[in-house]
Design goal:
The structure is a single chain. The chain contains ten helices and ten strands. By secondary structure, it is of the alpha+beta class. Helix 8 (177-194) links the parallel strand 6 (162-170) and strand 7 (200-204). Helix 1 crosses helix 4 (74-83) and helix 2 packs across helix 3 (39-50). The termini are far apart. This is Replication-relaxation family protein. InterPro entries: Replic_Relax (IPR025855).
Length: 260
């Protein structure tokens, strides 16, 4: 086994694996290489696997052509933890993470949420004057606001002098609407506590789910709720007019920067 010399890009890949817990080969290719089918990404990740920097698995029941899914390996966790002045256990690393995720019913949610991050990150890179300044993971959000609500993510988007801070909810369509209305109520409690009217961005499976959420999720001025679909987030992308304000059927769709 050849020892791998870690580059700055390698370190960013490991940090991102730690942030999201799991990423697919196409996602890593899009974030750090030339695209979703990057052969350079595939070769580098193979080197990661050979040096225990990352573990890989193919999800059950996803077909023969499903992409590899990657998590931190023991050496990758050690690298990330050392750079933070911590131990692998202190950063939440578990040696059986890849096995647990492979069997988890929440794997689709984890990879879908990671893809949401990919869309924002790559769109910021391709948009003049735009930066994704911050993306907090579900775990970090839980630490910060778990006493009230646990968002799937939290972002800070900066574009042409305008800053948007927003919570992110990746929706797979399985949660009952009543549970989502309860979640908005908890967001409203958080807004009262922080005195900040922070928008919540829902990314949902399709138009029917979007219509349902826009009908029932009205957070009022304290919690502006905006909804788009997985497909519209992918194309034309988050900066375009794809966000519909829940509770206001007449407002039309708006671009991301207008939600600030």
């Amino acid at each position: 086994m050849a020892t791998i010399r870690l580059t700055e890009r390698d370190l960013r890949i490991l940090d991102t694996l730690h942030l999201h817990r799991v990423l697919t080969t196409p996602q890593i290719g899009e974030l750090f290489f030339s695209g979703t089918a990057s052969r350079a990404a595939q070769r580098r990740l193979l080197g990661f696997a050979e040096n225990d920097l990352a573990d890989r698995f193919t999800p059950r029941h996803h077909g023969w052509n499903a992409p590899h899914h990657w998590t931190l390996g023991p050496e990758g966790a050690r690298v990330v933890a050392t750079r933070l002045g911590l131990t692998p256990k202190q950063i939440g690393y578990r040696p059986d993470t890849h096995l647990r995720l492979r069997a988890s019913t929440r794997l689709g949610h984890a990879t879908g949420l990671a893809q949401t991050y990919v869309r924002f990150a790559t769109t910021a890179r391709a948009t003049p004057g735009a930066t994704l300044q911050r993306w907090w993971s579900e775990a970090r959000c839980s630490t910060a606001w778990g006493h009230r609500v646990c968002p799937d993510g939290y972002l800070r988007w900066r574009q042409d002098g305008t800053t948007l801070d927003a919570f992110v909810e990746y929706d797979t369509g399985t949660e009952p609407l009543v549970r989502l209305t309860e979640k908005i109520s908890r967001y409203r409690d958080l807004a009262v506590e922080t005195r900040l009217a922070t928008p919540v961005l829902f990314v949902v499976p399709g138009p029917r789910r979007l219509t349902s959420l826009c009908r029932v999720l009205d957070g009022g001025p304290q919690v502006p709720v905006h909804v788009t679909t997985h497909a519209r987030l992918a194309y034309p992308g988050p900066t375009r007019p794809v966000w519909r304000r829940a509770g206001d059927p007449d407002c039309g769709v708006r671009p991301l920067v207008d939600l600030a």
